[in-house]
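Obj.: predict assembly geometry.
Materials: sequence records (below).
Method: joint structure prediction, all chains together.
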Amino acid sequence: MSDDLTRAVEAALFASEGPLTADQLSAILNGAAVLPALRMLADHYADRGVHLVERGGRWQFQTAPDLAHLLRRTREQPRRLSRAATEVLAIIAYHEPVSRAQIEAIRGVQTAKGTLDVLLEAGWVRVVGRRDVPGRPVIYATTPDFLNQFGLASRRDLPGIDELRAAGLLDPVDEAFEALVQGADPVDEGALEKGGESA
Amino acid sequence: MSDDLTRAVEAALFASEGPLTADQLSAILNGAAVLPALRMLADHYADRGVHLVERGGRWQFQTAPDLAHLLRRTREQPRRLSRAATEVLAIIAYHEPVSRAQIEAIRGVQTAKGTLDVLLEAGWVRVVGRRDVPGRPVIYATTPDFLNQFGLASRRDLPGIDELRAAGLLDPVDEAFEALVQGADPVDEGALEKGGESA
Amino acid sequence: MNEADLFTPARPAEADKLHLELDGWEGPLDLLLDLARRQKVDLRQISILALVDQYLAFIEAERMRLELAADYLVMAAWLAYLKSALLLPREEQPDPDPEELALRLQLRLQRLGAMREAAARLMARDRLGRDVFARGAPEGLRLDRRTRWQCDWFGLVSSYGQVQLRTQPVVHMVRERPVMTLDSALERVSALLGITLDWMELREFLPARDGDWTEPRLRRSALASSFVAALELAKQGRAHLRQDVTFGPLHLRRVA
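Observations (raw structure tokens):
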């Protein structure tokens, strides 16, 4: 049994063609405060076959993950990403916002244009602006759809992101290097860059 | 709390792109007997914002009928009546009941069908019958809503021709136009398109 | 990730496998990372020297396929240089310090390794459309748009005024002006034509310049009407018209 507002929130989320933010829901329901209802619903559905989840501030119903084996075969598999695309996606997600040059610095290879296009087309990555450095390169970040696709409530839920950050593995090589050789002679940037770029 | 089969039925129906028969559900769920689960779910959802319903032997979730009004939002867009529609409305108000042919005779230009439709849609004009002449043309009159909209107790409150003249509303077009241009009254920018059917 | 043993490319099956994977490999740092992984140790612990050795051995064995990944060569050259620098006694080391280069390489491999692992963990999550599913047939939230028409009293009344005005019978009041009518011009010109058989200029048909006829507007009217009268007479076959030059004086003469 639930109150009218909760029922209305439940119905609106069921009927919606996509995830809805609390604000959008509130607008649909004449400005009602929907968060308590959302929490109540999430609770109610927690042990059912359908869950109410929050992804990047947007709420939606989806089937319970433990039922994947039953539902999967009735469905088409989502497009398989190439390994290059998955790496680029991970780099963007863990480092965002990043430029293409930064992505390439981490991967050590040029990134084919098509690789980024696949991610842009999937709606998981978008251009969020330009970096204020010479050449004003475009910078990329992930989208709410990305969080939704991978079942992440927010970027903080990225697997292992805290450990990676603590280990300095999300810092650029130059920074990590400086940290390691502090007090040592200044590094010949030119020679290092040359070596790095050719890799 | 529900058992795994019920959860699976719930998830399968939720994710399905169309209603499913019990047999189809059973096929998805490895031949399980799904009817008890369907009844349990229908019971569970009976007082929620979403109902599980059976239609011609096929089962589906749908939003509760009593919430339909919430899920169908109406957005009102204010729009100014066109010059042509305003003229037609005025003619009907001063001469009602009138046929379209009469309106055109008074305006001196043909009246597009859409112009009258706009007035009917606005609820200011209605069909009050047919004139008993060859062709039996439809005749129009204003509605009580029209009087409300313009703050009139009755049609007799409309100013007469003499009053219009005294108010300068029967000044020659050129002078009225000058007054409009100088006064920059946006109300009547339509005066420029003399007799135009922009409705 | 390809788990084939990349260190024994001499075996044809393995070599083929590598060949098939070249699309996915994309480049040398990637390959180097796999070589590093092969050592099954923490990247921070591995010997860059050993790694370089393995890489160069691999390149050597795969010489035939180099055209498929030209940048392997650049990497190989750079690594060969790094290797030789690392082998040199410390005092003969070139600038920049090969230890630094090796450290940087290690740092890069670590970062790439971390991202690859992160990507794998990301891909292994419950994915929407693969493991979990959104509503299959959402009813949709409908948004009906309605137009609220607006018009005010003034607009209504003034537009009625405009309609009335527009459809009132139009009466043009022309102020009386001194003119010579076409009829009187026709009469005058044909009467004067009867006097002589000689060519006469059009101006000679105009009334003498006295009294009212000094008024310029009346004279212009007389000239215009006389001209039209001349054309009319010519059309009727009662007069010849002659003009020697464009814009020159117009002459007329009775048809004999």
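Conclusions so far: Confidence is low (pLDDT under 50) at residues 1-23 of chain C.
To do: check interface contacts against the pulldown list.
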